[in-house]
Specification:
- The chain has five helices and two strands; from the N terminus they run ββααααα.
- Strand 1 and strand 2 form a beta hairpin.
- The radius of gyration is 21 Å and the shape is elongated.
- Strands 1-2 form a two-stranded antiparallel ribbon.
- Helix 2 runs antiparallel to helix 3 and helix 3 runs antiparallel to helix 4.
- The N terminus is likely disordered.
- The N and C termini lie far apart (59 Å).
- It has one domain.
- By secondary structure, the protein is mostly helical.
């Protein structure tokens, strides 16, 4: 019978024995599940944004955001997705006769986030790149949320900024 909470043990070649306590295993599982939950929440927000954009203005289908969960592929997909989302926002703003703050809203921020995320694998520099990526990810998420609220409410950008 397998006891999941008995801990894990691994013996190295030189005889050193490494034990992981059940508390350590549970802590790792809680952290991994928590991070996965946050990522799913983020992807749901991206999907919701795309759903509020008229189909003729979308550069990608809302369900395609879930491709971001595919390991390795997501390293390329996130760059493409940031561009598709920025172009979709621009097309929606144009169709509503709203002024564009930039030709591709959210693109610069999203691209910076992606570059920092990929640079996160570089030794030493990766620590700083990962911190920057996290900060940029939060700002990008907030900006995406602003546009989602704007499109869902049907208000103009000026009215949204005042509220």
């Amino acid at each position: 019978m397998i006891h999941l909470l008995d801990g894990f043990s691994y013996t190295y070649r030189d005889g050193y024995n490494s034990d992981m306590s059940p508390v350590g295993v549970i802590l790792i599982l809680v952290v991994v599940i928590g991070i996965l939950g946050i990522v799913i929440w983020y992807l749901m927000n991206l999907q919701r944004l795309l759903e509020t954009i008229r189909p003729e203005n979308r550069q990608m289908k809302p369900g395609q955001v879930w491709l971001s969960l595919i390991p390795i592929f997501n390293l390329v997909w996130m760059f493409l997705m940031v561009g598709y989302i920025a172009d979709s926002i621009a097309a929606e703003l144009n169709s509503r006769n709203e002024p564009l703050p930039k030709p591709r809203p959210t693109y610069d921020l999203g691209l910076s986030m992606c570059i920092c995320r990929v640079a996160g694998v570089i030794p030493i520099l990766g620590v700083f790149a990962n911190i920057a990526s996290l900060v940029l990810w939060i700002i990008y998420w907030l900006k995406i949320n602003e546009y989602q609220r704007l499109f869902a409410s049907g208000m103009s950008q000026d009215n949204l900024l005042d509220s």
